[in-house]
Amino acid sequence: MAHELIIRNGTLVDGSGSPAVRTDVAIDDGLVTAIGQIDGTGADEIDAQGHIVTPGFVDVHTHLDAQIGWDPMLTPISHHGVTTALLGNCGVTFAPCRPGDRELLAGMMETVEDIPREAILSGLPWNWESYSEYLDSVGKLNPAINVGGLIGHCALRYYVMGERGVAEQATPEEIQQMAELAGDAVRKGAVGFSTSRFLGHYLPDGRHVPGTHASHEELVAIARAVGDNGGLMQNVLNLGGDMEGELALLRKEAEASGGRVLFSLTAGNSYSFGRKVSDAVRTMRDDGLDVNAICIPRGSGFVTGLQCMSLWGGATWKALSAAPLDTRLRMIRDAGTRARLLAEAAEKPTRMELAQTFYLGGGDVPDYTVGAEQSLETLAREAGEDPAATWLRYADETDGRALFVVRFFNRNLDSLAELITTDYCLPSLGDAGAHVSQIMDSGWATFVLAYWVRERGLYTLEEAVRRLTSAPARIMGLGDRGLLQPGMRADLNVIDLPALGERMPRIVNDFPGGAPRFIQDARGYKATICNGEVILRDDALTGSRSGRVVGPVAA
What we know:
Elements: E1 3-12, E2 21-28, E3 31-36, E4 42-47, E5 52-55, E6 57-59, E7 82-87, H1 102-113, H2 117-123, H3 131-139, E8 146-152, H4 153-161, H5 172-187, E9 192-196, H6 216-228, E10 232-236, H7 243-257, E11 260-264, H8 271-286, E12 290-295, E13 303-305, H9 315-322, H10 325-332, H11 335-347, E14 357-359, H12 376-383, H13 387-397, E15 403-406, H14 413-420, E16 425-427, H15 444-455, H16 461-468, H17 470-476, E17 492-495, E18 501-502, E19 506-508, E20 517-519, E21 522-523, E22 525-530, E23 533-537, E24 540-541
Parallel strand pairs: 1-4, 1-5, 6-7, 7-8, 8-9, 9-10, 10-11, 11-12, 12-16
Antiparallel strand pairs: 1-2, 2-3, 5-17, 13-15, 14-15, 17-22, 18-21, 19-20, 22-23, 23-24
């Protein structure tokens, strides 16, 4: 029998957690049609000898809502085995939206997620008002991978309440209208609803984004409507300010929705923070509530280097940051300019913790797990230099390529390991599409397999793949993806696990208007297949755009 595509001789890790097996996989019409010894030939065949074959990875926390408008390849997550991405997290979305509110929503996305406002306004078609119309517009962009969307609290609240939605509490009638609109969005294809209560999310004028201080009653009403239609409730909480109240809200949402509730989490600097949260979530889950968390699976924060943000202020540093990269190199190699930079750094020290600022290394693969010996503070002390002098020296010696990461989150790898091996917390939270010139965590799935499986053995291969595939697919409500079984959608990866790794991040200027962003390729991906089409082969995108809009309705 002939097939459209056959993957032969691979080690199948099917996403269920079951033991890996050596087998073939046949694909036809975008579906997995056979697993076992496949006779006959394929119109295309991939030899997976010595490689693992997995379902495509599911990234449940992205902010690609804007980028998809000008980059339907959805880089860089499409380089890292992701075949399904969830947009619209943290409450910031572009729908529902009246024409007169476009600039406000674009400005909100800029201040919250560091996506340039002008790129948003010029790079999207803005041919929608409702959230379902937004999803229709996204589908017409023909993305390379599957995308699902969450209707955001910020846009929904402003749509219903106008300017009052920023700081005032909603009336009962307004709450009912928001709930009806959220439920209708899920009924028409949205994955669910998202909200943010994080006090660091601001409008351009400095006020907190709409929904930050919304009452529990408002969110419970929305949760009920979303849950009635099979949707997900996604939350960014204020756990550092009101842990008990925020955890109580999760319980209320789960009880009201009768369905899936998701929140973002970090491990903290000690075990105690994570264990308090874990104890509360385990109690909810023991009571039959479907409460889940995600956490970035490595130390994370700002990336600093000559090609991106610096750590110091002052007129000369600002001029350096504003110049093209080749000009920056000339500036730091000029003795007078360098002296002024060092003088300004001495006069106004950085607010960043230099003991938590780590060199990513001089090779092709960044090292995200180095210890104190590679901190900027230690490197400067051992060289007998001011840290700014060390930063400039590394930039000079590498022609501007040197990068350091400032670890704000998950500084304690042991605490992190304990958190991401719980039954409720999955590795994720790469924030792809957001903070594009400041952070680069989009390769988090590659990191899980390369570090936590291959280097540390924290997960078995089968368990890691389950946490990257069927577990997040279930949270999204997708019953047709995340597992490799006959009849399931043909989203797959063929991976050379010993060679797998992230490549060093680099800045490119490919956003509308030439705005900068980080990109990060991968190595070790023999192939990535989305809906039966090969979108990546031997670490290079093929240009195929076979993704579609997905949601619980399609499950």
